[in-house]
Specification:
The chain contains 6 helices and 10 strands, in the order βαβββαββαααβαβββ. The protein is globular.
């Protein structure tokens, strides 16, 4: 796909926010960074007065993603990892911070967004058209996904007939379909068997070699050597490992 123009998003007009945005723009201008998030803040308010309270999920989290890089984001359940991902994708608003991005974006959510009564083939057709792909591009990319993830025999099966592992494969395959320059993956290999887990790392390594960039969320990492860099999310902030 053709790279989308660099996009800028910012909340607030404080001097600190302006400095963070300028810093992110300089990094993108260098050509080796494709995504820069600075000072991400997310606060949820619960209850009603006088028992209203604020829950700070993110307290100034930073994330950088370089071209041709696999980066991990690790944290305990409930630490805010998926919140970071949803903010980066744009499906969740933030209460502070800036985001700079250059390139097309793909997203694999932790919970598959699938339609129970559609087949795998129909999902690829639906999502492919939404991505703006032509029929031949959809067919080629779909067949490649079936091949590398090994679930082509389920092409005509409805989602309601699929196992949890096959649903996870379809969920990942839909994110891979348009070959995005930036791929954000939230717990992508949960539910995979060992063979599919190894295939997943073959896929990510191949995309890194092609200059694609991947941010992968997990609550634990056993294969640390597969990542170029890792962030730990602690107390609402990212700490480089």
């Amino acid at each position: 796909m053709t790279a989308t123009p660099t996009t800028t998003e910012a909340d607030g007009s404080t001097d600190a926010s302006t400095r963070r945005e300028a810093d992110a723009q300089r990094m993108l201008a260098g050509g080796e960074t494709v995504l820069v998030a600075r000072g991400l803040i997310k606060v949820y308010t619960t209850g009603i007065w006088p028992r209203r309270r604020s829950l700070w999920v993110l307290r100034g989290a930073d994330v950088d993603l370089g071209r041709g890089e696999i980066v991990g984001l690790v944290g305990e359940n409930g630490s805010g990892k998926s919140t970071v991902m949803k903010i980066l994708v744009g499906s969740l608003s933030r209460d502070g911070g800036t985001i700079e991005r250059s390139g097309s974006l793909g997203y694999c959510p932790q919970e598959p967004i699938l339609y129970e009564r559609l087949t795998c083939d129909e999902h690829f057709e639906l999502f492919g058209e939404a991505y703006g792909l032509g029929a031949l591009e959809i067919d080629r990319a779909r067949d490649e996904v079936y091949d590398v993830l090994g679930f082509g025999r389920w092409a005509s099966a409805r989602v309601e007939e699929l196992s949890g592992g096959t649903r996870a494969k379809l969920n990942l395959g839909l994110a891979l379909l348009p070959d995005p320059q930036i791929l954000l993956l939230d717990e992508p290999y949960a539910g995979f068997d060992w063979d599919t887990y190894l295939r997943f790392w073959e896929i990510t390594a191949a995309r890194r070699d092609q200059g694609r960039s991947l941010l992968i969320i997990s609550h634990f990492i056993t294969d640390e050597e597969r990542f170029d860099r890792i962030y730990d999310l602690r107390d609402g902030q990212t700490v480089p490992r």
